[in-house]
Amino acid sequence: QLHYSVPEDREPGFSVGDLAKDLGVEVRSLAARNLRLVSEGGQRHFQVDLAAGVLLLDSRLDREALCGQSPTCSLHLQLVMENPLQLHRVEVDVLDVNDNAPQFPKPEVVLEITEVANPGTRLPLEVAEDPDMGSNSISTYELSPSKHFALSINVRGDGVKMPEIVLEKALDREKVPVHHLTLTALDGGNPVKSGTARVTIHVLDANDNPPVCDPPISKVLLEENVPVGTLVTKLNVTDLDEGPNGDVEYSFKTSNNAPGKFTKLFSLDARTGEIRTKAPLDYEESSAYEIAVRARDKGSPAMEGHCHLRVELIDINDNSPEILLTSVSSPVQEDAAPGTVIALIGVKDSDSGDNGQVRLQIAKELPFKLVSSFKEHFSLVTSAPLDREKASGYNITVRAVDSGSPQRATQKTFYLRIADVNDNAPNFSSPFDTAHVQENSLPGTSVFSVSASDPDEGSNAKLSYSILDNGMQDVPISTYFRIDQDNGTIYTVRALDYEQDKVFQVPVEVKDAGSPALSSTAVVHVFVLDENDNAPNIVYPSVPKGSAFHQAIPALAEPGYLVTKIVAVDADSGHNAWLSYQLQESAEALPFQVERRSGEIRLAQALRESEDSHRLVVEVRDNGTPSLSASVVIVISPEENSVQDFSKSLDLPQSSPEETNLTLYLIISLVSISLVSCVMFGLAAAR
């Protein structure tokens, strides 16, 4: 039987022993004798190198896996050789190597000890395990430094070392509730290997501490109008005890006789100590609240502490200013002097600080301004002259703005009426007007309507019209015209005669009903239009009515001889005074003719010797509508010794050329005026 040993940490191919040498055979004969290796365990860990005659390691060995905690570890092999057949037994000892570190069953060990435990109290620990054997197994234990705990090692009967933690100094859980230690197990190998476990020691509480509020008196700033349920604060209460001894319940501390108002506004979570709002907070109602809280633990006997909290509200700009119109003087006279008080205005803002500082504003374009009377009271006064005719009233918007952030504003509008003062005289649309009226119109005929306006109102704008007698006519103008005092229509009082008065100047006065009354005047030029109410008047020859005018002419007068000339005038004017002359038709043909425009009677043909006198009826007719006429009878007698001397035969003085051609001038004037009028109308139409 051969015996070898091999360390467990050798690599495959390691030479375990020289078989040829130990068996006393030559190396070259091993192959011929068919040397082979048979393992008894069924696992093949070795092989034979026939060329070298040595036993080699076929795979790496693990003593702990092969033999466990057995003090010795051996593997048994059989060598078989033939020719002759021989059987050899080989025993290989697997030597232990320190290839395993100590290991605790749990990486962390949790222990408990009461804080009132006496020094010397022992806390047993679990034993570490090391698969290695002998000196490579666990040699000792070490504990991390601690003021309160130390390590004690006891040895059992089987030699196993048992670690224990011993209390050396009294504990105080409120100072150190948990102690963290490290336990180290060391083996005896070379080099030394170790394993560690965390040791957590919980100090069990005893109810020896009351709840403590930190800080005992605190202050919280909170904006008003925060939403209901807003967290005000969470009380910082500590109880150094634990468990029921440190489990704190919270409650409001109130008096039965006078429960605190804060209990209606705040809620307290009995478990967490959170104080929240349960109703809206209003700074204007109360700016601060004092809250007392009782903190009580569940120990036996129970201990309690007290917290005092002051909640101060921060004012936010949650109230708009209020505008109070104390007094308004409406209407106000338009002649009110600047500085006249119109209204008294008060403002109020329930907020405080800048949020309650209010400024009043009105539009700059208004003729008013605000004057501060005293705190929160203002006067609205006029700052400029008022004119009702420009503005009969004002919508005054007073705007109140506070100084908060964001600003809040309120506005109020009221209407101020401006009362009228008689400060405007009536005013005619034109100071001079022109009117036309036919002569002979019936009395009461409407001539013209004057119109005046007064920007005042009421009685100050009630107008009455009258005609002034300015003495410009010989006869008072009121004998010709009258005026309706209400509407300003001018009527005739009597029939007018163009031939007597061609134009009238009618001064009209308009007066309002104000006090004092104001007035103004205008002049209406009334032109009388001519009517054909005058028949032509034959001036020459002048004969009594029913008589004839006798005119002698030379018997031998030649054609064209001027027999006489009819002179007539017409009191009318224009076309009505445009005269024409003609002979009335007779039964016999007359050797005379009348010049139509001039009225000259001339011989048309020579007289026969046997002819006697001729009777001519000359008619003078105007151009009016209807046309009026006059006639004269002229008896013309031929005489042998008669000589033409027309100028001497007239009873009137010798007429000048201008008088002779009066009718012609009238015709030329009328035509010229008509032509100019046509040209002017044409230019106006072209424009």
Explain what you see:
- By secondary structure, the chain is mainly beta.
- The protein has 6 domains: 2-95, Immunoglobulin-like (Sandwich); 108-204, Cadherins (Immunoglobulin-like), CATH 2.60.40.60; 212-314, Cadherins (Immunoglobulin-like); 322-412, Sandwich (Immunoglobulin-like); 427-529, Sandwich (Immunoglobulin-like), CATH 2.60.40.60; 537-639, Cadherins (Immunoglobulin-like), CATH 2.60.40.60.
- Helices cover 8% and strands 42% of the residues.
- The protein has 7 helices and 49 strands.
- The protein has a 4-stranded mixed sheet. A 4-stranded mixed sheet has the order 8-14-13-10, with no helix packed on it. A 4-stranded mixed sheet has the order 16-23-22-19, with no helix packed on it.
- The longest helix has 25 residues, at 662-686.
- The protein is elongated and about 230 Å long.
- The chain starts with a strand and ends with a helix.
Question: Helix proportion of residues, in percent?
Answer: under 10%
Order of strands in the sheet with the most strands? 1-7-6-3
CATH class assignment of the largest domain: Mainly Beta
As a percent range, the share of strand residues is: 35-45%
**CATH domain topology of the largest domain:** Immunoglobulin-like
Q: Which properties best describe this structure?
A:
Immunoglobulin-like; mainly beta; 6 domains; four-stranded mixed beta sheet; 8% helix; 687 residues
Give the gist of this structure.
With 687 residues, the protein is mostly beta strands.
